[in-house]
């Protein structure tokens, strides 16, 4: 018995050790901790602090202007007191920046080069919210893999992605950059993205380090206003905000990024509870935390720090390891250590975390491994475009299809394509487009013309421009509210058409960082244009191109077919045409709820029941007296060109203890006439619990493909 007990304990230790390894950043580099310690032993305090500093390389591209000039930054690079740079683009540029460090500094610690590679580098995939609508984790991993390869070919080895902020508010501009309102789905997307970027070996020169952001609560900004206050309790924090970050940490994500917002009165950048206690303590995660752009010094504006030096003290003690363009660490940490206000061991811990990632990336073996000009020549961008087209059509959600208007029938010989986004080749690229070329996407007009063939007459009218003036990442879009000069031409073309395809939605720069909106309907003259066209031809298929859920109640009540096409990236028009003409049967499901009115926001499916859930008899219940409380189109919703019938659910047991499990089975049949994919979703509800639980919670899903008449048990 003793031998068996010893054997059992040894096996358990082996299993636990293996599990612990899974929590770490995977790399083929050996003896990393010994190497890290040996470098740290040689470093001066100034050199240590330098590793905690990140500079912008293209000089103030994505944030407020820097106070430091380029010459001073170059001198500090040569001195070896800079740990990272961002926005240094091209293998030539990163090689030159790396040479400044490697040929001039004392210890020669290589730089790591970061960039916002959010949904593709040159080949642009659907915006993350749209891609999540595919519910295809393999596709999401593949798009991240391609983005990594294209990034490395251009000298980038670190992406500030995935953004895994759960968000329930369509007004928040950055909802386009995340995966929607559900923590379970977002957690799986987080793992898929980390795997795609980092692969199985971070030292592989075709992988890049990923970043889980923003830690934490950013998506819960009050009133959906970017950078705003967040007030949540521990229940909401641990059940809805943190699970995707825990999943990313468990998947071995190399870095975390903290967020701009306060959370319960404390700026996230200065939150010891989030960064030291939970992330580095409870989760035992061993990568490093980078601030968001200037978020350390922004604690001064929060009224939490009196100056840069004080902000540096707060941030480092809280666990923020690297200062992105804040200027706080280089300005204050040396004095703080000498004054005894910061223990040098805290700086050592931050430096070790950064060195650990650099070693695991193989940078100490070859500082120029990500500056290989030959790699770009090996990339087949045409193959990447084909993948982008496939992922784009998987991301399309069919919201409405009365009388099977879609797919387009052969009897339709005259199609009028109308709308400000119909011929737009730029908006489908979306915001946060990395090095995606402006106006390079396939437009809806181009896609339909290519798919329709010679026997179909295609006419086009813009109707009304969506925006006026110049478009800019840093400036709000000016919306056209007055110019209706294109209305008569659009109405005339609609009158003569068998089918009208209206292409409406949002400009690429209506959603994204700093682009929160109090109104989330069809901006400008689009709603009026839609209603005018409807007066002369009711055979309308509405194609929506947008980065957030829109308020489209009028369209849902009147327009027979509605296709949610998001901002789908490089191959947008071809993917949309594939769905409209039936080459691809839509299979997407919403990752976020669409409201009946903006006043319902924040809106999400997994709400708690309240003590007075609903009553049609009188008003003293939890609802609205004008629009109700239900979503127009709820989370998980999406139609197909075929029909799926669900049979009876069967359980392997009626009861279970905490150590048991129950298997749930359900037969699903394709009762329609064409093959199709269905995302079978499992929701649970805990009826009696120690804390009030949501009315339902997603806990599993599986995508199946069925031929007509075929049945599968999930």
From TrEMBL:
Residues 1-20 form the signal peptide. One of its GO terms (molecular function) is beta-glucosidase activity. Its EC number is 3.2.1.21. It is an enzyme of class 3 (hydrolase). Keywords: Glycosidase, Hydrolase, Signal. Residues 678-714 form the Fibronectin type III-like domain. This is beta-glucosidase. Residues 396-641 form the Glycoside hydrolase family 3 C-terminal domain. It comes from the Bacteria. Transmembrane segments: none annotated. Belongs to the glycosyl hydrolase 3 family. Residues 44-357 form the Glycoside hydrolase family 3 N-terminal domain. It comes from Autumnicola edwardsiae. InterPro entries: Cellulose_Degrad_GH3 (IPR051915), Fn3-like (IPR026891), GH (IPR017853), Glyco_hydro_3_AS (IPR019800), Glyco_hydro_3_C (IPR002772), Glyco_hydro_3_C_sf (IPR036881), Glyco_hydro_3_N (IPR001764), Glyco_hydro_3_N_sf (IPR036962). It catalyses: Hydrolysis of terminal, non-reducing beta-D-glucosyl residues with release of beta-D-glucose.
């Amino acid at each position: 018995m003793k031998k068996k007990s010893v054997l059992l304990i040894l096996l358990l230790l082996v299993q636990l050790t293996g599990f612990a390894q899974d929590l770490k950043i995977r790399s083929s580099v050996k003896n990393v901790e010994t190497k890290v310690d040996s470098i740290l032993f040689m470093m001066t305090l100034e050199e240590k602090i330098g590793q905690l500093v990140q500079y912008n390389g293209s000089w103030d591209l994505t944030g407020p202007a820097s106070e430091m000039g380029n010459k001073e930054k170059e001198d500090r690079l040569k001195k070896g007191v800079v740990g990272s740079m961002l926005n240094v683009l091209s293998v030539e540029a990163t090689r030159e920046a790396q040479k400044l460090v490697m040929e001039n500094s004392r210890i020669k610690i290589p730089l790591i080069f970061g960039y916002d590679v959010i949904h593709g580098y040159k080949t642009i995939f659907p915006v993350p919210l749209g891609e999540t609508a595919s519910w295809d984790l393999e596709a999401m991993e593949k798009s991240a893999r391609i983005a990594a390869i294209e990034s490395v070919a251009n000298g980038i080895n670190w992406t500030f992605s995935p953004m895994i902020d759960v968000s329930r508010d369509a007004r928040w501009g950055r909802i386009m950059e995340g995966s929607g309102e559900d923590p379970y789905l977002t957690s799986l997307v987080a793992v898929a993205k980390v795997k795609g970027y980092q692969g199985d070996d971070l030292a592989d020169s075709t992988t890049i380090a990923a970043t889980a952001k923003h830690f934490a609560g950013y998506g819960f900004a009050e009133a959906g206003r970017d950078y705003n206050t967040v007030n949540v309790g521990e229940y909401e924090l641990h059940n809805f905000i943190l699970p995707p970050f825990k999943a990313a940490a468990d998947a071995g994500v190399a870095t975390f990024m903290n967020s701009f917002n306060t959370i319960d009165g404390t700026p996230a950048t200065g939150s010891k509870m989030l960064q030291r206690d939970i992330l580095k303590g409870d989760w035992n995660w061993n990568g490093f935390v980078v601030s968001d752009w200037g978020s350390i010094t922004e604690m001064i504006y929060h009224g939490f720090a009196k100056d840069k030096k004080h902000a540096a003290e707060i941030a480092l003690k809280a666990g923020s390891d690297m200062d992105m363009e804040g200027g706080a660490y280089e300005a204050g940490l040396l004095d703080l250590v000498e004054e005894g206000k910061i223990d040098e061991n805290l700086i050592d811990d931050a430096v070790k975390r950064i060195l650990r990632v650099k070693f695991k990336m193989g940078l100490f073996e070859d500082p120029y491994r990500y500056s290989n000009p030959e790699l770009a020549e090996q990339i087949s961008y045409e193959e990447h475009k084909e993948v982008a087209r496939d992922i784009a059509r998987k991301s399309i959600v069919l919201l409405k299809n009365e009388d099977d208007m879609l797919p387009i029938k052969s009897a339709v010989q005259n199609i009028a394509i109308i709308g400000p986004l119909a011929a737009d080749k730029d908006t489908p690229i979306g915001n946060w487009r990395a090095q995606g070329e402006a106006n390079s996407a396939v437009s809806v007009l181009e896609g339909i013309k290519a798919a329709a063939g010679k026997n179909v007459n295609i006419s086009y009218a813009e109707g009304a421009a969506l925006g006026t003036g110049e478009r800019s990442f840093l400036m709000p879009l000016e919306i056209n509210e007055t110019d209706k000069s294109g209305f008569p031409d659009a109405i005339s073309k609609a009158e003569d058409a068998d089918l009208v395809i209206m292409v409406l939605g949002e400009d690429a720069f209506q959603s994204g960082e700093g682009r929160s909106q109090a109104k989330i309907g069809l901006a400008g003259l689009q709603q009026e244009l839609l209603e005018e066209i409807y007066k002369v031809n009711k055979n309308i298929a509405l194609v929506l191109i947008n980065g957030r859920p829109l308020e489209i109640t009028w369209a849902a009540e009147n327009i027979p077919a509605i296709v949610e096409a998001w901002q789908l990236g490089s191959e947008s028009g071809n993917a949309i045409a594939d769905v409209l003409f039936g080459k691809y049967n839509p299979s997407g499901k919403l990752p976020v709820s669409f409201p009946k009115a903006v006043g319902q926001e924040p809106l999400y499916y997994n709400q708690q029941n309240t003590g007075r859930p609903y009553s049609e008899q009188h008003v003293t219940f939890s609802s609205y007296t004008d629009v109700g409380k239900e979503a127009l189109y709820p989370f998980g919703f999406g139609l197909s060109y075929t029909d799926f019938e669900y049979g009876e659910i069967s359980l392997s047991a009626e009861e279970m203890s905490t150590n048991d499990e129950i298997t749930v089975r359900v037969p699903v049949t394709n009762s329609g006439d064409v093959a199709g994919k269905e995302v079978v979703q499992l929701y649970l509800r805990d009826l009696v619990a120690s804390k009030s639980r949501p009315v339902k919670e997603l806990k599993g899903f599986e995508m199946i493909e069925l031929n007509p008449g075929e049945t599968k048990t999930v």
